[in-house]
Amino acid sequence: MLRQIALFALAALPGSLAQVTEGFENGWDQTAWPTYALDCSQGGTVALDTSTAHSGKASIKVTGAGGYCGHIFVGTTKVPSSGDIYVRTWLKASKALTDSHVSFITMPDSAQGAKKHLRIGGQSKILMYNRESDDATLPDLSPNGIAASKALPTGSWQCFEYKLGADGSIDTWLNGEAIAGLTTNSSNTNAAQWTRSSLKPKITGVYFGWESYGGDTNTFNYDDIAIASTRVGCT
Ligand SMILES: *[C@@H]1O[C@H](CO)[C@@H](O)[C@H](O)[C@H]1NC(C)=O
């Protein structure tokens, strides 16, 4: 009987229930949340941080070193295998995005091929996406494209959310507000480079951290991460 109730409850789970939620309050489970540093790992570190948190007492801290091999990420492969994917994280960056290209979220993307990633980071001092296989950016890094995105505030917790639609679309929110330059829908006139490919991302993991292709270093804290099939929001 109990088992039947449990099964029924599972079947009746609301769509909004997150696939993954993690606030690191019970520590850093390195099996569920492994580090990720493809090809090389020189200098970047990941640690549980009990000195700052968005909620509770702990967050995960990524200290990213300069150069590609200074990269380090921590994340999960537990992502919805089909349908829309929504990711929400609270994050705190210690330094502003510069003109140099960096990534703070990387996602292995089998649609692009082996060892290729859909990446979220910065360039031209604003938030942007980068598709590793053809190096396309969203938005286009023209003056108008740059103006259509946003800088990432430093030193305080920010709610960063994005959607990877099953149809290949992307939408992004910072503290609940959509970022006009970081959507692929027709309202974005600065998505020409991105949309010249019809590739639909097929991600197999989401990893939070730091990777810089110049010399930039940074420290990011991540907390209250949620990965789900519907939008989770900031609260
Ligand atoms: C397109 O994206 C923007 C920014 O995310 C959003 O405000 C707008 O409602 C979207 N438009 C459509 C037609 O989906």
From TrEMBL:
Residues 23-230 form the Cip1-like core domain. This is Cip1-like core domain-containing protein. Keywords: Signal. It holds the Pfam family Polysacc_lyase-like. Residues 1-18 form the signal peptide. InterPro entries: Cip1-like_core (IPR048955).
